[in-house]
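Pilot study result, target chain (220 residues):
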Amino acid sequence: MIRVLLVDDQPLIRSGFRALLDLEDDIEVVAEASDGREGLALAKEHLPDVALVDIRMPVVDGIEATRRIAADPALAGVHVVILTNYGFDEYVFDALRAGAAGFLVKDIVPEDFLHAVRVAARGDALLAPSITRKLIDRYVTQPLHAGPVPELEDLTAREREAVALVAQGLSNDRIADRMVISPMTAKTHVNRAMAKLRARDRAQLVILAYESGLVTPRNR
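Predicted structure:
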């Protein structure tokens, strides 16, 4: 059973999502919150698999709520998916840097919404290649540098190669083609790199790759 927490300051939005999720046999809405502070408290209480979090809320907004969830080791299993009305904007970028697994626009069709919840529950990032390219474009125009990351030394050469390809927006299948390995082996390299670098998902891996200097815009 996939356990879901809904965090949105609009009751109508929450009720609509809940009605849709309640129809599924493998999904359970465990709690609802109207702001980020309440959402954080409920996340600690219920430990959901997926937290659907509105990006703009009173008291504590979605970005700060995401940051606090990502920073709490007790909530490592909570995958935050940002809900937005506006598509990919600066707020969404900040949320991804804060630790969100991905984002959904609220006018998403029901089938895609349910699929996204299941993808997030598996621990996979909700980032299409087009979104990854937008992350990369942000670094081309406004590069940010977090400084050296000692854990990079723990990566094997193949893991470094896989991370660089993830940072170019490639899927596991395309990474496998480029590295001449199986998709499962490609996924293993990516997952091991994420574990060593303590990246919550592919979105975090892309950001870390650029901020650490492992990949630079000119490498694209």
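One observation from the pilot: The mean pLDDT is 84. A full batch analysis is planned for the follow-on phase.
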